[in-house]
Write a structure and sequence with these properties.
- By secondary structure, the protein is an alpha+beta fold.
- α17 packs across α18.
- Bound molecules: guanosine-5'-triphosphate (GTP).
- Guanosine-5'-triphosphate binds next to β16, α17 and α18.
Length: 593
């Protein structure tokens, strides 16, 4: 006895194959052909009976060759020239059968009736076994009935669930049972007798709706292909979405024995399963697309975003968040805990200027169970606005927005609203705010203060003679000289036109106020060089002392203005202190420039 002992198997476990080798050899003794395949359908092992049953493989079969090669030799021998063009499909169907086969079936090959069984072999792949039925063996169903009349006389087969059909050697129907009659919609079993199965199949479809015809055509093709080499089970569609599975066996007497199983429910379930699978696949694809879209959106967002899950692990952190917070990519790619991100930031000095209570909160995990909005000044000077929103079930989503530009423009707008655009001194509104504050503090007992109201003398002729631009430069120089003369903390303002004011703090007496006014006049006195012109300007200054000249900002302004007017009337470059009871000569609201 010889077995083709092959070199080490390509994929299957060598130990399992070694165990199977003697078994495969022993099967030869029983006249059973055997061939083993691995899980990828590559040929592993076969015996001598296999080559006897399938002489087309002798000298050709090889270890490791795909099952498809085996099938190709098989069909090349079997198919006639008309059928050969369809060989690839036969091979594909043969592979599908090989992979899914559960029930044995009989087919004729090389003059033999071969019953083939196939089953999976765990750890190896699949085993296929063939027995020559025509050579005798256990009694087949065919041998139980020597005469079809035996069947006709009994109702036994009418009580089984499946349809049965027996054909003569000329393929004409000799007998069918009642379930068969019912399945194919025949009048009675006599209606089938003498017909070929294909004719019964046509009868079954005779009353079908036209839209079902493509299915009928499909069924005819299946019949034609499968009845030729009856053996492998096949399925045919029937009207009204019903299906029949036909399992054929051929007896040595040339008769065919067919079981017809109504698999409508099974088929429906399969279709439902397929539809559910398709839907699952579609929604999975949709989900994948959506998640890719979401990921792309997150990566392109102008806002940073971070999602911390209930276990305090950073689940999502987009590129912008990493940029805004200076977080290293490798740390964020490691699905870090939120605490380790905070630790990293702490080590980088991110929280060096954070108030102690907030720092304690950060050390305790830094996540609140309620929505919050706050701004974090970064060590690099940028300001990040942070929104933190808790997620139901734990965790938090944070968004990070760089609001440095917004903050800068707001500061600029605030500055513009309180300062004079030409001289950069504070404007009238800001001066009045400071004055109101000074009154408030003085009322609480702080030292008295003075308001100096300053109007440039004969400014108009400068404009008229040298132009507005020169006038502007003179105003800027006047502002600079006043700013330099005033002490730190004293407020110097341009009230409008050629009018200025100084808020002088801690004025112990009248003399101290006059002294500043004189210093202001002295500072203005030196000529100014503007665009090649040598210009000299003076000013008239009115002083209002708190509380003598009034105890509110408005009164103090009006009295300082009035005193300035008196000074102006007195002549250039003079100073006038407001005296209680003096008439108000000019309202501060009156236009002066
Ligand atoms: N160049 C320039 N001139 C201004 C500006 N604002 C107001 N003026 C001018 O300043 C002048 C102020 O008028 P007045 O106060 O009557 O002129 P003055 O010659 O100083 O008169 P007295 O105060 O009585 O000495 C007007 O000619 C205004 O047009 C400014 O921003 N730039």
């Amino acid at each position: 006895m010889s077995v083709d002992l092959q070199p080490a198997p390509l994929r299957a476990a060598a130990a399992a194959l070694d165990l199977l080798r003697p078994l495969v050899e022993a099967l030869d003794g029983l006249g059973i052909a055997c061939c083993l395949f691995d899980t990828a359908d590559a040929t592993l092992l076969w015996n001598r009976s296999f080559l006897q049953f399938f002489p087309e493989h002798a000298g050709a079969i090889q270890v490791g060759e795909p099952y498809a090669h085996n099938l190709r030799r098989f069909y090349e021998k079997r198919l006639d020239d008309l059928e050969k063009p369809a060989i690839e499909r036969y091979i594909a169907e043969g592979i599908a059968r090989h992979q899914a086969q559960q029930q044995p079936f009989v087919f004729s090959h090389g003059g033999r009736q071969l019953r083939v069984a196939s089953l999976p072999l765990p750890g190896v792949g699949r085993i296929r076994l063939w027995r020559d039925e025509s050579a005798g063996g256990p009694a087949s169903m065919a041998r139980c009935f020597t005469d079809v009349a035996d069947l006709d006389g009994t109702a036994l087969f009418d009580h089984v669930a499946d349809g049965f059909m027996v054909t003569d050697p000329d393929h004409c129907i000799a007998w069918v049972n009642e379930p068969f009659v019912h399945l194919y919609g025949l009048v009675d079993r006599a209606a089938a007798r003498g017909l070929r199965f294909e004719a019964v199949y046509r009868l079954a479809w005779s009353g079908a709706a036209p839209q079902e015809h493509p299915l009928f055509e499909q069924g005819l093709v299946v019949l034609e292909e499968n009845l030729r080499f009856a053996g492998a089970p096949f399925e045919v569609p029937l009207p009204q979405a019903r299906w029949s599975r036909v399992v054929a066996q051929h007896g040595p007497d040339g008769r065919g024995y067919f079981a017809h199983v109504d698999i409508t429910v099974l088929k429906r379930q399969q279709q439902q399963l397929l539809a559910a699978e398709r839907r699952a696949r579609e929604s999975e694809t949709l989900l994948r697309q959506k998640s890719a879209l979401l990921e792309a959106t997150l990566e392109r967002m102008e806002q940073g975003i971070m999602m911390v899950n209930a276990q305090r692990v950073v689940e999502v952190c987009n590129r912008r968040a990493m940029q805004l917070l200076d977080l290293p990519e490798d740390l964020m790619a490691s699905r870090p805990s939120f605490q380790s991100v905070l630790d990293y930031q702490m080590a980088q000095g991110e929280f060096d200027h954070t108030p102690a209570d907030v720092l304690d909160f950060i050390r305790e995990g830094g996540i609140l169970g309620v929505s919050q909005r706050y701004e974090r000044p970064r060590p690099d000077g940028r300001v990040i606005e942070i929104f933190s929103v808790p997620i139901e079930g734990g965790g938090v989503v944070r968004t990070y927005t760089d609001i440095s530009d917004r903050r800068r423009s707001e500061a600029r707008i605030r500055h513009l609203a309180r300062h004079d655009g030409l001289t950069a001194l504070v404007n009238r509104d800001a001066f009045l705010e400071s004055l109101t504050e000074a009154v408030h503090v003085a009322r609480l007992g702080a030292a008295p203060f003075a308001v100096h109201y300053i109007d440039i003398d004969n400014f108009k002729p400068i404009n008229d003679r040298f132009g507005h631009a020169v006038g502007d430069q003179v105003l800027v120089m006047v502002a600079d000289r006043m700013r330099q003369t005033a002490k730190d903390g004293e407020v110097v303002a341009r009230l409008g036109g050629d009018e200025f004011a100084v808020l002088q703090y801690r004025v112990g007496n009248e003399q101290s106020a006059r002294s500043l006014a004189d210093r202001l006049l002295a500072a203005l006195a030196p000529p100014m060089e503007v665009e090649g012109h040598r210009l000299t300007v003076g000013a008239s200054i009115g002083i209002a002392l708190y509380p003598e000249a009034g105890d509110d900002a408005d009164l103090l302004m009006r009295h300082a203005d009035s005193a300035m007017y008196v000074a102006k009337v007195q002549g250039a470059a003079s100073v006038q202190l407001y005296a209680r009871g003096a008439p108000v000569l000019r309202s501060s609201a009156s236009p002066s420039g």
